[in-house]
Amino acid sequence: MSRVNAPAAIEHHERHTGKTVLTVVFAIISVLYIMPIVIVLYNSFKSNAAINVGTFALPNKESFVGFSNYVNGMTVGEYPFVQSVAYSFLITITSVILIILCTSMAAWYISRVDDIVSRIMYYLCVFSMVVPFQMVMFTLTKTANTLTLNTPWTIQIIYLGFGAGLAVFMFTGFVKSMPLEIEEAAAIDGCGPIRTFFRVVLPMLGPIIVSVGVLELMWVWNDYLLPYLVLDRTKYRTIPIHIQYLQGSYGHVDLGAVMALIMLSILPIIIFYLSCQKYIISGVMAGAVKG
């Protein structure tokens, strides 16, 4: 009996050892990813001189300055930080809503109308994900100025163009997994395409909407290069641009204030991401069923 169970016991031990090794490896990787945030966090409570001398040193009695860096970061400079926060919220929320609405409708059309036009649209959206932003940024700047897309109320059109690829790809995979009979029943009841989408299809897209929304929100909120190239920086500054301009005379940079504003900028997105993490995983898995 013991001879029969020996191979199974060895296999179980090897499988358990493999899981333990993977757990340790991924724990180390997680710590490496978290460490930069931790370093920024405790440096935001240190004096500027202490940060320059010992960036990786923990705060002590001499270097600890409390919340003065946060106060300085929000008050120092000719451009109000509150205004930068307002522009970041405006651009992020409106861009994400526009991306979700337009790309979900496009994905529904692509999935249900199987013709050459819809296929070309789909492959163009997928191809846009592999085009580097650096290839089009100079042309984009001139086009944005010509079409007056260089304001916080019109830059959403540009974000829609760059964010459509991933969103359409995820929405299309999810829509193809949805039963067609529900939409056919709605059509029999007299619902037109628009009413069918908003009353039947859109509520069923809930999990993937959360996933796409979180991914696009993190991208737009943290984006620095696109607003920097497109917006008039003397009038409109998002939080990343505000942090970049947070410097005194002769190029002197208050690192403590910079660290404090970086923490204020990433804290909301971290909280939002952690609260929606399970929906991201479920939505991505559901969207990858068919493609």
* Percentage of residues in DSSP E strands: under 5%
Number of domains: 2
Helix content: over 70%
Backbone structural class: mainly alpha
Q: Span between N and C termini?
A: 50 Å
Rg, Cα atoms, Å: 25 Å
Shape: flat
Order of helices and strands: HHHHHHHHHHHHHH
Question: Which CATH class of the largest domain is shown?
Answer: Mainly Alpha
Number of strands: 0
CATH superfamily of the largest domain: MetI-like
The total count of helices amounts to: 14
Mean of the pLDDT scores? 85
Write the CATH architecture name of the largest domain: Orthogonal Bundle
- Describe the largest sheet: none
Outline the low-pLDDT stretches: none
CATH topology of the largest domain: MetI-like fold
Please provide a written account of the structure.
The chain is mainly α and 291 residues long. The protein contains 14 helices and no strands. It has helices spanning 2-43, 48-53, 68-75, 81-112, 116-128, 137-146, 156-176, 180-188, 193-204, 206-222, 225-230, 239-244, 255-275, 277-287. α4 packs parallel to α7 and α5 (116-128) crosses α7. The N and C termini lie far apart (50 Å).
Task: Summarize, please.
With 291 residues, the protein is mostly helical.
Keywords:
291 residues; MetI-like fold; flat; mainly alpha
Q: Strands, helices and their partners?
A:
Blueprint lengths: L1 H42 L4 H6 L14 H8 L5 H32 L3 H13 L8 H10 L9 H21 L3 H9 L4 H12 L1 H17 L2 H6 L8 H6 L10 H21 L1 H11 L4
